[in-house]
Design a protein that fits this description.
The structure holds two protein chains of two kinds.
Chain A lengths: L3 H16 L2 H6 L4 H18 L7 H26 L7 H18 L4 H26 L3 H24 L3 E3 L6 H6 L1 E2 L2 E2 L1 H18 L1 H11 L1 H6 L4 H27 L1 E3 L6 H11 L11 H21 L6 H23 L9 H6 L3
Antiparallel strand pairs in A: 1-4, 2-3
Helix pairs in contact in A: 3-14, 3-15, 4-9, 4-10, 4-12, 4-13, 4-14, 5-6, 5-7, 5-12, 6-7, 6-12, 9-10, 13-14, 13-15
Chain B lengths: L8 E10 L2 E11 L4 E6 L5 H8 L7 E6 L2 E2 L5 H6 L2 E4 L11 H5 L6 E2 L6 E2 L1 H13 L18 H14 L4 E5 L7 H16 L3 E6 L2 H7 L2 E6 L2 E7 L5 H8 L6 H12 L1
Helix pairs in contact in B: 5-6
The chains are: A mainly alpha, B alpha/beta.
């Protein structure tokens, strides 16, 4: 009982030297795999598609725009996944939000700020309903939000046909709303600015606030979080609403940038958002991940989807490419997480220990 | 016992029944500051019902609960916690993929700044958590950013106990803290119990390992079928008496050997 300190003091001294060894910290962070993936695919397409114009400003703006739109949805969805829940309803929220803007402005003649607020309201309400159902029933959010994705898709499509007779309605934004939601500078959409704002806020919340700790705890050990007094229902509800708002914002931006609202657009995000989160190092069962990782995952997806176009190959290959990346990402994340949980964590010096034949 | 101090937590003739089943009958037990009260008994003897009453999870069907001599019905787990009764469960309730510092302050984070800039004071959280964990004799933990998943069972227990003490626990209820641990790990936990006692906490130590109990206990209560079968203070009973009692009152030689063999392993 009393002889242990001697051995432990020795370990501590050796390990504190290793604690100053920063790269260990980096390679065991949740976003390390995502960084490798993003750099890897960029280098790959720079080599393969560079001669075809992948490195031009226009192509760069192309993948940055694709990344920003995807990240705007994937960041809140990924943070929700860290808390242990899914949101598959984001696809329909994008369509419902964009058709709300178009129907409200063009068909009903309502003022633009009002319809934009209504569109964001559709997203917030969807998130609220998802969150309340998941909290009250403790059913898997995968099923609950899959159901709400279908319900909302049907409602948006049905209402659009009743009000306008079609599912696609054109819309034009006037100032100042066009600057906020529909402008483009040097080929870069205003979406990029929104993405940066949302990304910074999400990073701040997750990494530096109490809410961030509560999110990790809710996804990492729900029972432990509840015992520690974490308001886990409030955490989930807030994140479901944030997820709905992120998707609704993308719907508004799409309506503004493409001058039309379409009730069925956005279904691709249903699986793209969780794929991006997982490529970005978010653990599928929750409890682990980072906003930096999710953004890097979105960059990977954006580079692949635009890069393939510049290779001259048909985009038919995109799904196979993304699927392959996903499997690699899941394997890499698993390895990184296990490494982070190796005895002694990131500050141990495994090399020094093995040398001594321990 | 003539000038006996007032117990910091006391159950008086407490009974608890679920439907027609009496899980606990007429149990009287006092927990004193700076003492370790060992709660012994076989599986199903009522130990877990007793600690659930102590920690406010169950409300007794009869009898009284007193804190510092004042009758205080523990209406909820939160209520009991707010009055300094901390329960550390076997699984300890830590978040494995979160750091030591964040786990230490989970649910009670230190913050600085105001409004949207209100943030966790990670520097202080790191310093305080590390200092308190290490003061429990856990010297292998030297980085508050280390994930709790990297800690051993005994170290997690130390973290949980350190956290409870930091947040003002007066009574520490440890539910079978040593039963899942090896000999070395168990000795680490026993040392933690010693630290808690030396800092004036009343410790309730639930175990069915007589060696662990005898090594650290000041008072002992044996439960058999929901009743207090025996209660004594340190030195009043021999080791063999204790082992007999724990075997359910039966004096059976091979059972005795089995128990001692188990305790020694």
């Amino acid at each position: 009982m009393t002889d242990t300190p001697i051995a432990h003091v020795n370990t501590a001294r050796r390990s504190s030297l290793a604690g100053a060894f920063v790269p260990t910290k980096i390679y065991r962070s949740p976003q390390f795999g995502a960084l490798i993936a993003a750099v890897g695919v960029y280098v790959f397409f720079a080599v393969v598609a560079g001669p075809n114009g992948f490195l031009t400003p226009a192509a760069t703006a192309g993948w940055v725009n694709a990344t920003a739109e995807l990240a705007l949805i994937a960041i809140p969805v990924g943070v929700l996944m860290i808390s242990g829940e899914f949101d598959l309803s984001v696809g329909s929220v994008v369509g419902a939000s964009s058709i709300t803007v178009a129907l409200g402005s063009t068909v009903l003649g309502l003022p633009l700020p009002l319809v934009i607020i209504a569109a964001l309201g559709v997203g917030a309400l969807t998130g609220l309903v998802n969150g309340l159902i998941v909290n009250a029933t403790r059913l898997p959010s995968f099923i609950v939000t899959l159901a709400s994705n279908f319900i909302l898709l049907g409602l948006a499509l049905g209402l659009s046909r009743v009000l306008a007779g079609v599912s696609t309605v054109s819309v034009t934004f006037d100032e100042p709303w066009s600057t906020l939601f529909a402008s483009t500078f040097f080929d870069l959409n205003v979406t990029v600015v929104w993405c940066l704002v949302v990304g910074l806020v999400a990073y701040w919340v997750l990494a530096h606030t109490r809410m961030g700790s509560w999110i990790y705890a809710t996804g990492g050990n729900l029972d432990g979080a509840i015992k520690a007094g974490v308001p886990t229902n409030r955490v989930r509800l807030t994140l479901f609403i944030a997820s709905g708002l992120g998707a609704a914002l993308v719907g508004v931006l799409q309506a503004g940038l493409y001058h039309s609202g379409n009730a069925v657009q956005g279904q691709g995000f249903v699986f793209q958002a969780p794929i991006v989160a997982v490529i970005g190092g978010v653990l599928l069962v929750g409890g682990y991940g980072s906003v930096q990782g999710i953004v890097l995952g979105a960059i990977t997806y954006g580079v692949v989807s635009i890069g393939l176009f510049y290779t001259g190959w048909t985009s038919d290959w995109l799904s196979a490419f993304i699927g392959g990346l996903l499997i690699i990402a899941v394997l890499a994340n698993d390895a990184i997480r296990k490494s982070a949980l190796k005895s002694g964590g990131r500050t141990r010096a495994p090399r020094a220990r093995t040398k001594e034949g321990l | 016992m003539s000038t006996a101090p007032i117990p910091v937590l006391e159950l008086e003739h407490v009974g608890k029944s679920f439907g027609g089943t009496h899980a606990l009958t007429d149990a009287t037990i006092g927990v004193f500051a700076g003492e370790v009260h060992c709660l012994l008994g076989d599986n199903g003897a009522g130990k877990s019902t007793l600690i659930k009453v102590m920690s406010g999870i169950h409300q007794p069907t009869s009898g009284r609960v007193l804190i510092d001599g004042v009758e205080t019905p523990l209406v909820s787990a939160r209520f009991a916690q707010d009055r300094g009764i901390a329960t550390v469960h076997q699984d300890v309730g830590m978040i494995p993929l979160m750091s030591v510092a964040r786990n230490f302050f989970l649910g009670r984070e230190l913050t600085r700044g105001r409004g949207p800039f209100r943030r966790i004071d990670m520097k202080r959280a790191r310093e305080i958590s590390l200092e308190h964990v290490r003061s429990m004799g856990i010297r292998r933990v030297h980085d508050a950013d280390q994930m709790v998943g990297t800690l051993s069972g005994g170290e997690r227990q130390a973290l949980a106990i350190a956290r409870a003490m930091y947040f003002g626990a007066k009574v520490l209820i440890l539910d079978e803290p040593t039963s899942a641990l090896g000999v070395k790990e168990a000795s680490i936990v026993l040392k933690q119990i010693e630290v808690a006692r030396s800092r004036g906490l009343g410790v309730v130590f639930i175990t069915h390992n007589a060696s662990h109990a005898l090594a650290i206990g000041d008072r002992f209560t044996v439960l058999i079928q929901g009743r207090v079968a025996a209660a004594w203070t340190r030195g009043e009973r021999s080791r063999n008496d204790v082992l007999d009692l724990m075997a359910g009152g039966e004096v059976v030689d091979d059972l005795f050997e089995k128990v001692t063999g188990e305790a020694a392993s």
